[in-house]
Every structure is written in C-alpha cells, then in structure tokens.
Description:
This protein is an alpha+beta fold. The protein is 47% helix and 19% strand.
Amino acid sequence: MSRTMIANQTKQAPLTLMGVFNFTLSDLNANKQGNLSKRQMRLAEASQPNVMVQLILLGHVGVIIGVMALIVLSSGATTERLLFLAGGSVIVLSPFLYAMSRMSTTQKGGLSSEDLQSGEVLSVCGAVLVRKAETIKQPHRIMIADKRFIIPKDALDLFNPEQGYCIYYASHSRKIVAVDEMR
Length: 183
C-alpha cells in the first residue's frame, strides 16, 4: 500500500472520543481508579513549560527595565522621567506576567502543575447535554449532572444524547482526560 493511500485512509478515519480526548484503554483503566496514567503524566510533563525559558524571559525583562532606568538616571531624574520609568516598566512587565500565567497550563495536555502533583482524577456519570458555542470566541461545552466541561469542536457530534457517559477529569484544571460510555 502506498503512503498516499495510508494518509488518505487516516484522514477519512471516523473520529472517536478516544481520539479527540487522546486517551487509551490503559489510561481509562487508571482514570477509573482515580489516577492519571503514567502515559498521561508523561505527556503532560513533556508539555510543561521549561523553567529555563521562564528565567530567560525574566532576564530580558530585567535588562529592558535596567536600560530604561539608566536612560532616565543619566538624563537627570525628574518626576516626569521617573513616572516614565514606572510606566515603561509596567508596559514591559505586563506581557511577561501574562506569558507566565499562560505557562501554568500546558498547551498540549491542558493539565496544570497541580494536576501533575496530585495525579488525581475525578469522575461524574450520567446523561450528557451538549452546548454548542453561540459565537466563535465561546467554547463548546458539555454538562453532566452539576458539572460543566469545555470540549473541542471535534467532540460535538460524538456524544449520543440517548447514551449515558462517565467523564473522567483532572481534579484541579477540570480538563477531561477520558470518557467512557455507561452500559
């Protein structure tokens, strides 16, 4: 079979909850026991922000603020110039603080460092109500019992309204880690 045929078959493969939420049967078994699987932990740790990247960003911010301070001090420190330094420091520091806050949750796994430390998985079972986003900026959601979860667009049509589900989610970030149909 040629590579093109294999690629075309992969693109046409039907989506599954397992594929959309990126879990395996062994992940599901660990989640049913109330824990993240070793694989889920490894994937989440691999996508955790690197401390060295954070330190490099902090160093750059420090250098920029230092240069601004030297410019202000060398030209005579007046109230206006000190306000310029303070305002400039806030402007330079704001994107850094935003980037640092975004780094606490990973891009790939979406699990927080607290999720990785505890390794705890919670679950809720019952009928699922799918809420499609009304605008592009709003996330798609599912509701089950008294819990709400954000879901990717690919998962919208995968939940059967006549079927019950157990949703397994990380205890801190409330990110779905696995889904199982109730029998």
